[in-house]
Specification:
The complex is a heterodimer of chains A (250) and B (287). Helix content of chain A is 37%, strand content 27%. Chain A is α/β, with parallel strands linked by helices. In chain A, a hairpin with a 2-residue loop joins β9 (219-224) and β10. Chain B is mostly helical and 287 residues long. In chain B, a hairpin with a 4-residue loop joins β1 and β2 (137-139). In chain B, α1 runs parallel beside α5, α2 (39-57) crosses α3 (61-82) and α2 (39-57) packs parallel to α4 (92-114). Chain B is globular and about 60 Å long. Classes of the chains: A alpha/beta (250), B mainly alpha (287). The A-B interface holds A 68-70, 89-91, 93-95, 99-100, 102, 106, 108-111, 115, 118-121, 123, 164, 167 and B 164, 167-168, 170-171, 173-175, 177-186.
Chain lengths: 250, 287
């Protein structure tokens, strides 16, 4: 009987942690001749916010791009929803429900805000409606007819997040969404991420600002020289503070 | 005065062809980053396609206006799939050389079978004759070419600047990698865009068949001027290439009236002036 109980407990623990969404094993990636990722291993479970921390050039962005399928040469194994996507093309990966909000935001200058917002096609049902998006980001509604790149940095970041919420993708990869933004906007983006998490989105976040990450993340992985060198849960953040300072050099 | 109007009309007609061709070149350059030197040959193929449809299958002008752009467009898409796509990411020079080579081969083949002289293509019955406008005599077919080209140009502009499909296209011109990462099949879009640009060239070919006859080198003569038009207007601007196309046709026409000796060179003189003052072209964006 106790065995059964333990199995039961393990099962419910698994259920709260959520099913495995993304598993990356021994991921190596190259930009042309330069070898950037030297064996990245990590997992993301459904409903989690997982943050990759690390110095500039450690390989965080390259990891996201590899998962998205936009790094030309990559080896190892990337599994999403139990399907191997290591060799899939980025449009196929996107249609499986993976969405990327890139570091440089990728707002299109030749498109107005509405066109930017409507650009990513709906890949499955269950995405946010335009009303829900304007509820999250009221600024965007007033600027629908502006040229995309005429928005402020904060508004561009909101637009970059907003447009991938429409598509129905449930796994979002956000690359440094707070970079270069004013504290009040960072706070708003933090609230948004918290709300998305509450609504069941799974989020893989890349951040240099771990004070911001601490407000939203469940778990952390430390990336250094193209490898994952450490990982811990948010509850262990305090205990790992010293290590973290060494890793990030702050 | 009659002569002035007549030259203006000729200018507008030439402007129609310049506009249709430079529009296609601009669309192709924007999306594929390729300077499509085969454009003149594809324009010629459009005219020959109409000629074949009529003489081999008895299919007349009106269906040819739709069929020829589709047939030549498909030929273009095959070229893109089998050859041009491998040049993405390389220097412009490679695309230019490849398409230039394709143009020479296609024109050479047609010249081998049809010689250099023109084959006749009759004006469709519905558009024969002319109207006396009081100040000038307007051949109906020529009026039709100008109006129809204008409509096609505006429609293409609308498609690219105002529709969802056009937004995808503009976005993919800016950042194809990201657009693909949103789930849009960019390689297919590139193929279709090349098909569209080629189709416009073929359409211009059909329109010109009753005016200029059907000749293997009809495109080679025209394309040099069209490239000057594109340089003046600026690559990558849709409305810019339409307006410049028509405007330069008219300027050429006016020059024929004022100082005929300069009519063949006026476009190139303008090109040099524009290059000196604004190297990206009148409406071009900086690279």
């Amino acid at each position: 009987m106790p065995d059964l109980k333990m199995a039961e407990a393990a099962k419910s623990a698994l259920a709260t942690a959520g099913a495995n969404v993304l598993t990356v094993e021994n991921l190596q990636a190259w930009y042309g001749e330069s070898h950037i990722l030297h064996g990245i291993d990590f997992k993301v479970n459904a409903g989690e916010v997982v943050t990759l921390l690390g110095r500039n050039g450690a390989g965080k962005t390259t990891t996201l791009k590899s998962v998205m399928g936009i790094i030309g040469k990559r080896t190892g194994s990337i599994r999403f929803d139990n399907q191997d996507i290591t060799r899939a093309s980025s449009d196929k990966i996107a249609r499986m429900g993976v969405a990327l909000c890139p570091e440089e935001r990728g707002i299109f200058a030749s498109l107005d805000v509405r066109e930017n917002l409507l650009l990513p096609p709906i890949v499955r049902s269950g995405g946010l409606t335009l009303d829900q998006i304007f509820d999250l980001f009221p600024n965007l509604k007033e600027r629908l007819n502006s040229q995309g790149t005429k928005l402020s940095g904060g508004e561009q970041q909101m637009l970059a997040i907003a447009r991938i919420l429409r598509t129905g993708a449930r796994f979002l990869m956000l690359d440094e969404p707070t970079e270069g933004l004013a504290p009040v906007i960072i706070q708003q983006i933090g609230h948004t991420i918290a709300r998305l998490k509450k609504e069941g989105f799974t989020i893989l976040l890349v951040e240099q600002n771990f004070r911001f990450a601490a407000t939203v993340a469940d778990r952390y992985y430390i990336v250094e020289h193209g490898k994952i060198i450490d990982g811990f849960a948010n509850s262990e953040l305090e205990a790992n503070m010293d290590k973290l300072h060494t890793y990030l050099g702050v | 005065m009659q002569a002035l109007y007549a030259q203006l009309l000729v200018g507008l007609i030439n402007g129609s062809f310049y506009a249709l061709l430079s529009l296609g070149l601009a669309v192709i350059f924007g999306m594929l980053n390729i300077i499509n030197f085969a454009h003149g040959a594809l324009y010629m193929m459009g005219a020959f396609c109409a000629y074949f449809l009529l003489n081999l299958a008895g299919i007349g002008y009106w269906p040819a206006l739709i069929l020829a752009p589709i047939v030549v467009g498909i030929f273009g898409m095959i070229l893109e799939r089998t050859m041009l796509q491998w040049l993405s990411g390389l220097d412009h020079l490679y695309g230019l050389l490849l398409t230039f080579g394709i143009a020479l081969i296609v024109q050479g083949l047609f010249q081998n079978y049809f010689g250099s002289s023109g084959l006749p293509y009759a004006i469709p019955d519905e558009l024969k004759g002319g109207i006396n406008l009081g100040f000038m005599f307007l051949p109906i077919y020529r009026g039709w070419v100008v109006v129809f080209s204008l409509v096609v140009c505006i429609a293409t502009w609308y498609l690219i600047e105002k529709t969802r499909l056009g937004a995808n296209l503009r976005a993919a011109t800016e950042n194809p990698t990201l657009v693909r990462a949103f789930g849009i099949n960019v390689p297919r879009m590139i193929t279709l865009t090349y098909g569209l640009g080629v189709g416009l060239a073929a359409l211009a070919g059909v329109l010109s068949a009753p005016i200029n006859q059907v000749r293997p080198l009809m495109g080679a003569d025209l394309i040099i001027v069209v490239f000057a038009v594109v340089v003046i207007g600026g690559m990558g601007s849709i409305m810019g290439s339409i307006i410049t196309g028509f405007a330069l046709g008219v300027i050429e026409g006016l020059t024929k009236y004022v100082y005929p000796e300069a009519s063949n060179t006026v476009v190139f003189v303008l090109m040099v002036l524009v290059l000196l003052v604004k190297p990206t072209g009148l409406t071009g964006r900086a690279a």
